[in-house]
Automatic annotation (TrEMBL):
Any Pfam family hit: cNMP_binding
Ranges where the Cyclic nucleotide-binding domain occurs: 25-99
SMART domains in alphabetical order: cNMP, HTH_CRP
Designated name of the protein: Transcriptional regulator
Coiled coil: none
Xref: PANTHER family: CRP FAMILY TRANSCRIPTIONAL REGULATORY PROTEIN, FUMARATE AND NITRATE REDUCTION REGULATORY PROTEIN
UniProt entry keywords in alphabetical sequence: DNA-binding, Transcription, Transcription regulation
Keyword Membrane: no
One term under GO cellular component: cytosol
GO molecular function, one term: DNA binding
Keyword Amino-acid biosynthesis: no
Native source organism of the sequence: Pelistega indica
Chain ranges of the HTH crp-type domain: 159-232
Length: 242
């Protein structure tokens, strides 16, 4: 399998002109602070679909912000069992959980051809001295990761299968809206097996529930494209748990 490749556009990286500046690390920074950050964050790397950005146990050398594409994180044990722990979209940051461990705590695999911006860990102290607000940004991102993990545990521990699927669809709807895309129609790059694995469901159960939601007019699915037709119905399914 090929290694991630350095983008030949790396010399032209400029955080101030990036369309995702409000979504990832530069969020809330002044123009001057973004200019300083841009002098230290110079690399982008490209990963083809199925390639690893980093592996479980690998020395953590950087954190990564997705510029285009999407990535899944997963754990693997010695019995070749995998557990998907997250799906990441443009503007979201990977590798933060390794800052206190010096090694990555999961595998990160591209769901499609993906490009990420690279911030080397050994530069973080220097960046923080130049851009003090960055420390607060990192804390907020870590808090978001912890919150997402807690929500996943809640979903797996207390929700029924239909509620898990409805929660998943509504979550992605909101995340795409945050990116500035439609909350009613979006592409899910992961397959149904990955969705089921993430939610603690079998492929058969995941497919059956998605088909049921289609028949009842809650959603429409065409290959990778999902359309939300009845958001209130999905919310009602989720709220039956409370």
């Amino acid at each position: 399998m090929n290694k991630p490749t350095l983008s030949n556009e790396s010399s032209s990286i400029h955080c101030a002109s990036c369309s995702l500046r409000a979504l990832c690390m530069p969020c809330g920074m002044t123009t001057h602070e973004i200019e300083q950050l841009a002098t230290l964050v110079k690399d982008r790397i490209r990963i083809e679909k199925g390639e690893y950005l980093f592996r479980l146990g690998q020395k953590a050398e950087a954190i990564y912000s997705i510029r285009t594409g999407s990535i899944k994180t997963q754990l693997d044990n010695h019995q070749n069992h995998k557990q998907i722990t997250g799906f990441f979209l443009p503007g979201e940051v990977l590798g933060l959980d390794a800052l206190s461990n010096d090694t990555y705590l999961s595998n990160a695999i591209a769901l499609e051809d993906t490009e990420v911006c690279v911030m080397k860990n050994h530069n973080l102290d220097q960046i923080s001295r130049h851009v003090p607000i960055l420390q607060n940004q990192i804390r907020q991102l870590l808090n978001s990761e912890i919150s997402r993990s807690h929500q996943l545990l809640l979903c797996l521990g207390s929700l029924k299968a239909e509620q898990r699927i409805a929660t998943f669809l509504l979550d992605f709807s909101g995340r795409f809206a945050h990116l500035g895309y439609s909350s009613h129609e979006f592409n899910l790059r992961m397959n149904r097996e990955d969705i089921g694995n993430f939610l603690g469901l079998t492929l058969e159960t995941t497919s059956r529930i998605l088909s049921k939601f289609q028949k009842e007019g809650f959603i429409a699915i065409q290959q990778k494209t999902v359309r939300i037709l009845n958001r209130d119905a999905l919310k009602d399914i989720v709220n039956t748990a409370h």
